[in-house]
Amino acid sequence: MKKMYAVLIILLGLTGTLAAGLHFGMTSAAKNEVKNLDLKVREKMEEEIAASNHAPTLSWTGETNYVSDGLNPESGTSATTFTYRIKYTDADGDAPATGYPKVHIKKGGAEISGSPFTMTKISGDYITGAIYSYSATLSTGINYTYYFEAQDSKGGIASGTPTTAIDAPDVSIPVNQAPTLSWTGESNYISDGLNPEMGTSAMTFTYRVKYTDVDGDAPMSGYPKVCIKKSGAEISGSPFAMTKISGDYLTGWIYSYSTVLSTGTNYTYYFEAQDSKGGIASGTPTIAIDAPDVSIPWSVPKYPVGLNVYADEVAIAADSSNNVYIVYWAHNGSFSNLQYTKWNGALWSAPVILDTVLSNAPSIAVDSGENVHIVYATTANTILKYILLTPAGTFATYTVSGSGTVGKPEIAVDSSGIPHIICDYSGLGLIHIWDSSHWYYDVIDANVSYQKVGMAIDASNNVHVSYPSNNGQALSYCKRVGGTWQAVETVNANTSCLYSSLAVDTAGNPRIAYQHIAPCNLEYANKLSGLWVSAILDSTPYWACFFPSLVVDSDGTPHIVYWQGYSYDVLMYATKTGSPIIVDDTHSGGTSTAIALDSTGGLHVAYANGTNLYYVERK
Q: DSSP labels for 22-91?
């Protein structure tokens, strides 16, 4: 072979020399013969060079999903990215010709637009194999084929199985993934989509929900929506389109809608959404929730007996005619009186002085005959007194006990009009006193010294009492059934408790609001299936929740008033759900609170700050 190359080279040289030497005498025919000889020599050289080149080969890459073909996936939708991969190998180490390897993609036997497509080198070398790749999305169809082609830089045509057409992929219309709705997880939106969950017609209620779509599809125009119903019917304008706040569609976009609502306790709400492809959203927020309860706003604070009366501890009650009675301790450096006033729905009565001796911690109850029963401690808390005030306005005072130290007493009246008193009495502990022709007592807990107890009597005349125990380190409960006190129950063993207030629902179940010291939370406990369950209603820091007073309405909803703030700055209202509501933030320095419920469900609150007696109501 080398000898032949040498001969060819010599011949080429000679032909060039001859052509130059004979130029002037050579005929035209002779010149053509020389030219033809030159071309033949050159063609022979190219044939010999080509015969010595090793053409490249194409093969499958052997990677996952590319072991026996050059495409992944082999089926999908028009939203799917299809990736073609091939291995190019050349024994001479020759690179592919420019623009190769290529992948041919045909549909119905015809090249699709742009085919064949130049592939991109990913890794490897030409001798052991270089991997090439090309990715594309495709329109729908099941008549696609593909194959690969390549040449090396010397024009060698690649061979191998990948040069044979394969029937793939099958491309379908995308299957839409419907969106989901969920709670946002923000404060006040952990387990629902509304805050507050109860309030007044003067408040703004804000609904929030999270929209998520795994396809990244935006909501259809006008969605998400919140549906707000009252008594099962959409309120005017509902459903309401919500406003996008933050996020993205893949991980969740938060939407919000705010509004005021008219009064009512029969509201429900739920959310709905569709994506831009019509997929209907699912999720817990699509199920109706019973909320909010919207009440009339609290009234402006009133002064039942005028200004600067030096009112301190208060108690309140309402009778079956919805008259409201308030008893309070009024004092300054020159006097100390137990006083009483009555609201008949239009006017407050002039204050009546019931006792001119230092009187502490009054408690009040009204029986079915509208007789008013009042109990209080007097003379440095050494005498327990009881007053019976008739509808005619006459009253009589009785000394229940005249020796020992008396704690803060509580009074309630049973269906027979018999008053029952709970108090701490030195030497005896927590005792129960009742009047049935004369005063009797029994001991509930002999080892208790307390601040303030809670007390209520249910429809079966069972007496319920809550009180701090274990030197104020725990909250306990006891019940008197048929004249016998049952075993003491621990409501919360891990609370430093000073004040508690107790009420019973229509089924006779006890509910307790109490002040938890360090931290000073407002907490609420009820008994469910024989077990006490507590919840924090207000955890405002810095000794912030004092003097709770509780009633429970006919629906079983608790209503609690209390002072909030280090200096007892704000009178607050709370219930089991939603955020606490400010009732009065203009009269600070609170010393006591008391709440009563009338026969229509109206709430009446008396409170004092050492200077004035205040009253608010919510009908």
A: TTTT--HHHHHHHHHHHHHHHHHHHHHHHHHPPPPEEE---STT-SS-SEE-SEEETTSPEEEEEEEE-T
In this predicted model, what pLDDT tens digit does every residue of 229-254 receive, in sequence order?
999 999 999 999 999 999 999 999 99
Taking a C-beta distance cutoff of 8 angstroms, is the pair 119, 131 a contact? no
Q: What angle do CA 91, 94, 95 make, to 5 degrees?
A: 130
Nearest to 373 by CA among 345, 354, 347, 346: 354
What pLDDT is stored for residue 139 in this prediction? 94
Distance, C-alpha 159 to centroid of its chain: 63
* Nearest of 15, 19, 71, 619 to residue 345 by alpha carbon: 619
Statement to judge: residues 516 and 421 lie in one domain: yes
Asked if residue 189 and residue 148 are part of one domain, the reply reads: no
Q: Please give the Cα distance from 404 to 513 (Å, whole number).
A: 29
For residue 616, list its beta bridge partners.
605
For 193, 218, 246, 276, the CA distances from 178, given in Å and listed in that order, are 21, 11, 20, 10
Task: Please check whether residue 300 lies inside any domain of the structure.
Answer: no
Structural domain for 116, as ranges: 57-172
Give tens-digit pLDDT for 293-329: 898 888 899 998 888 788 889 999 999 999 999 999 9
Looking at the structure, tell me whether residues 89 and 109 fall in a common domain: yes
Please check whether residues 98 and 129 belong to one and the same domain: yes
pLDDT at 310: 86
- Residue 414 belongs to a domain with what CATH number? 2.120.10.10
d(CA 287, CA 271): 8
Helix (H, G, I), strand (E, B) or coil at 354: strand
Angle (CA) 230-283-291 rounded to 5° is 25
Is the pLDDT at 359 greater than 80? The verdict is: no
CA distances from 547 to 277, 460, 516, 541, 607 (A): 57, 28, 11, 16, 10
Q: How many domains does the chain have?
A: 4
pLDDT at 6: 42
Residue 301 lies in a domain: no
- In the chain, the amino acid numbered 199 is G
Structure tokens at 481: 């059934």
Is residue 303 domain-resident?
no
Strands 484-485 and 474-481: antiparallel
pLDDT band at 408 (very low <50, low <70, confident <90, very high): confident
The pLDDT tens digits for 362-395 are: 999 999 999 999 999 887 778 899 999 999 988 8
Burial classification of residue 92, based on how many CB atoms lie within 10 Å of its CB (0-12 exposed, 13-18 middle, 19 or more buried): middle
Query: In the prediction, which pLDDT does 506 show?
Result: 93
As a whole number of angstroms, the distance between CA 235 and CA 571 comes to 33
Please say which residue of 115, 144, 172 terminates a domain.
172
pLDDT digits (tens, 9 = 90+) for 4-53: 444 334 444 444 443 444 344 445 665 666 566 666 766 665 566 556 79
pLDDT in the model for residue 118:
98
Residue type, position 504, single letter:
V
452/597 same-domain check:
yes
Sequence-ordered alpha helix ranges (H) in 388-456:
none
